[in-house]
Amino acid sequence: MKSTTNNQQPTTAPTGRSRPEGRVIVALDVDTFDQARRLLDSLGESVSFYKVGLQLYTSLGQAVIKELRDRDKRIFLDLKFHDIPNTVASVCKVVSSFGVDLCNVHALGGAAMMRAAAAAVEGCNTRVLAVTILTSHTPEAVRDELHIELGLEQEVLALAGLAAGSGLHGVVCSPREIEAVRARCGEGFLIVTPGVRPAWAEANDQKRIMTPAEAVKRGADYLVIGRPITAATDPAAAAARIIDELG
Ligand code: C5P
């Protein structure tokens, strides 16, 4: 693990982003430890950054973090915290002590919660990202169920701006939002985007996709990619092809 301890000085971003292979975060969306290990074995050195989500973390807990650290991988712990500021600050401290490079919170938790999260990881290598509006929400649901009057796109931008103003380090957003978020939040703000698909891969259930190269061209720092790699017959070859297209 390159950035493991809780007392290191912060860098401007988790290391490795400038190299094409450093931009790809593989979503470790599997059910069991065996499946995770098999995927890690087959990807070997070709991938250095993994996303662990709610499903795998709830089922395996810290064992999966340890496995990734033992393999010297960087980690995005995607648990989307949303609670009162004190609780979120405490959990951000905890995950920072695990040596994860990225974790995230819901921006809808508000400025005080995000400030507390940012303060909790100050001086550590963990970076905290904001999730704005979940992409599973439609514009109609945002208006009629959440009663957000601003409209989906403007609300996403407003929340990204709030996250940046609260001291968070970046945002998870759709590839379509990259340029607007970059313009609103500035150069140093990390943009991590799922919903990317190489031209040769299946879209699966992703609706508004963009190729990895296009997402990087528009300003994405990191790409979260799952099934085009994890469901490929040869995951290492699929990862290499994507990285090659980025180069
Ligand atoms: O397999 P696929 O490339 O679609 O995986 C994308 C990953 O990014 C999954 O872990 C998914 O949960 C996550 N994600 C997403 N869209 C969002 C936020 C997260 O696809 N808006």
Short description, anyone?
The protein is α/β, with parallel strands linked by helices. Helix content is 41%, strand content 15%. The protein has an eight-stranded parallel β-barrel with strand order 1-2-3-4-5-6-7-8, surrounded by seven helices.
Task: Quickly list its features.
247 residues, 41% helix, binds cytidine-5'-monophosphate
- Provide the CATH superfamily: Aldolase class I
Distance between the termini: 24 Å
Strand count: 8
Number of helices: 11
CATH architecture type: Alpha-Beta Barrel
**Sheet with the most strands?**
8 strands, parallel, barrel
Shape: globular
Q: Structural class of the secondary structure composition?
A: alpha/beta
How confident overall, as mean pLDDT?
92
SSE string = EHEHHEHEHEHHEHEHEHH
- Distinct small molecules bound, one entry per kind: cytidine-5'-monophosphate
Which segments are poorly predicted (pLDDT under 50) over 5 or more consecutive residues?
1-13
Q: What's the CATH first level?
A: Alpha Beta
Helix coverage percent: 40-55%
Strand order of the largest sheet: 1-2-3-4-5-6-7-8
- Tally of separate domains: 1
Radius of gyration: 17 Å
Q: What name is given to the CATH topology?
A: TIM Barrel
What fraction of the residues are assigned to beta strands by DSSP? 15-25%
